[in-house]
Predict the 3D structure of the following.
Amino acid sequence: MRAIKAIFMRNLINFYRDRTRFFFTIFMAVFFLFIFSFVMKAAAIGMANPMNYLISGIIIMSVFQTALNNSMNIIEDVASGFMREILVSPISRWQISIGQVLSSTAIALLQGLIIVIIGLFMGLQADPLHFLEMIGVMILVGIAFSSIGLWLATLAKSSTTFQVLVSVFVMPLTFLSGAYIPTTAMPGFLLPIVYLNPLTYTTSVFRYISLKMEGLPAAQLIKAGVAFNIHGFTIMPYFGLIMIVFIGMLFLSLCVSQFNRADFSTVKVFRHSR
């Protein structure tokens, strides 16, 4: 546990010192909130609180993207020589990987909470119970996608490859999840991809909790894009919670296993020449 705690605290301190990354992460969330607010006004006709609907999607997307992107730190650690020093120390590799996942999760949760606070000033409402449930979902999402990010980082072997993989992975999943644009406003030919996208259900369960939709009937949840009717079969929001747990367990085991076997001597970090 001491090794995991050391890795955890070291990554949090590095994040605290990197004010530029922190600022631009928050800036992009606010930027998307501003841009897609115009889309919501046109696409969410008849919706009671379109801005709250959008805010909840941006919160969970910020957690998802931060958790995934923070895993690139492992490649930077290799390039700086830090990882070489850690690997020769008397600790197991699985402790290093768990520390990396937990620190990425904590950073993602922190940034998600900051967006929540911004959302509260914009009309989002959260009582203590729903706030705790939102935190629980954000932690699960952080663990799941930090694990995916670490798994991709150990496969990528270079920072440029990792960035390409993340871009290919992030962009389609994000914009086809209903986080920014309601799935009910998407064209029909995209719906099969939307239904196969795990982030669709991640977004739906977070939105279901944050917007307090527990008492709504299934038909109204489907109309709001929080539940889904696929050929007569209704997928309710809490299916997303099951999917998050499953993805988290699967990729946590995969990333730990891959990290244990990884040869970091071949990892390269792209640097701009001066």
